[in-house]
Amino acid sequence: MQPDPVIAIGGENLIDSVQSTSPAGDVLCTDNLGGSPYNVAVALARQGVAAHYLTPISTDSFGQLLAENLTREGVIIAAPRSNATTTQAIVTLEDGVPHYQFLRDNTAERAVTTNLIDTAMPKTASHLHVGSLAFAGGADADVWETAFHAAAQQGLTTSLDPNVRPSLVDDPDEFRARFRRLLSSATVVKLSDEDIGWIYPDLSIDNAMTRLREESQAALFALTKGPDGAELWATNGHVAQPNPKIDALVDTIGAGDTFMATLLAQLAARKQLSHGAIAGLEPAALSGLLKRCLYAACLNCAQSGCNPPTTAAIDGALAKETT
């Protein structure tokens, strides 16, 4: 009997300090736990996946909240804690869409080394997901790139979500070059329309996706398009779908992370988390996979901050559509 997949996750953990305005005009600030890969780890655990988080978490008060939440959700904290401070993101919302300013110099999530990741990586890991600020630049980006290629060479499947934050990219040309290098080791690549527009600035979205697929040996590509739904490409087909209707949009924080986690969780649940199985997905299977990912992301958008749904909640939303 094939064992359940174990997914290792690498990349930032941080505090989203979300600034918003109340109906009375008062400025409100809420501190939320976050970071794209951190959110993916939580979303995976809520969908029953064995998730191991590889990035150091601070021992400060914010870090304690981050660590306690992972433990409560059932995520394994695989790396030792760090005495460096927690990264903070100042988030302002405009019509529910987040805009970010980051404070992350010399913080805990950047205190990674090749030896630390090698030690933290579970021996039973079958998949590595890395993304977002892990590749923004600096020595930590080099470490994560090395780890990503090493995982692929050791037979793990891998997933990559650049989740580009242009204001934090040290060198745009180097970031784009790094992204292209990572494509050689990626099994699943997920981007937003904003990501691909930034990575391939001289191309239309359609032409950029064609170029991306030509430059990569990945088995599956996902493109999220905000209010316009999402698309999936595999060797045997391409599907596109609009978003399902939701009662109310609160904000989009963590929507892409929920989508990414649901994609991996479903491949894991179907015992399809291998390059051959993913590449061989037919259009009908891709369509069902995409539909579930969109429902999960929209359920997240109906709540404040990143609050990914459970498997039962996604099942319930899908069942409601058919009644």
List descriptors.
13 strands; 323 residues; 4-stranded mixed beta sheet; alpha/beta
SS-derived structural category:
alpha/beta
| Low-confidence regions | none
Name the average pLDDT: 93
Total strand count, please?
13
* Largest sheet properties: 9 strands, mixed
Q: In order across it, which strands form the biggest sheet?
A: 5-4-1-8-9-10-11-12-13
The helix tally amounts to 11
Task: List SSEs in N-to-C order.
Answer: EEEHEHEEEHEHEHEHHEEEHHHH
Rg is 18 Å
Task: Report strand %.
Answer: 15-25%
Straight-line distance between termini: 35 Å
Question: How would you sum up the global shape?
Answer: globular
The share of residues in helices is: 25-40%
Description:
The protein has 323 residues and is an alpha/beta fold. Helices cover 39% and strands 22% of the residues. The protein is built from eleven helices and 13 strands. The protein has helices spanning 36-46, 61-73, 114-120, 139-153, 172-183, 193-199, 205-215, 255-269, 275-279, 283-301, 311-321; strands at 6-10, 14-21, 27-34, 50-53, 76-77, 87-94, 97-103, 127-131, 157-161, 188-192, 220-224, 230-234, 237-241. Strands 5-4-1-8-9-10-11-12-13 form a nine-stranded mixed sheet, sandwiched between helices. It has a four-stranded mixed sheet with strand order 3-2-6-7. Strand 8, helix 4 and strand 9 (157-161) form a beta-alpha-beta unit. Helix 1 (36-46) crosses helix 8, helix 8 crosses helix 10 (283-301) and helix 10 packs across helix 11 (311-321). The longest helix is centred in the last third of the chain and has 19 residues, at 283-301. The radius of gyration is 18 Å and the shape is globular. The two termini are 35 Å apart.
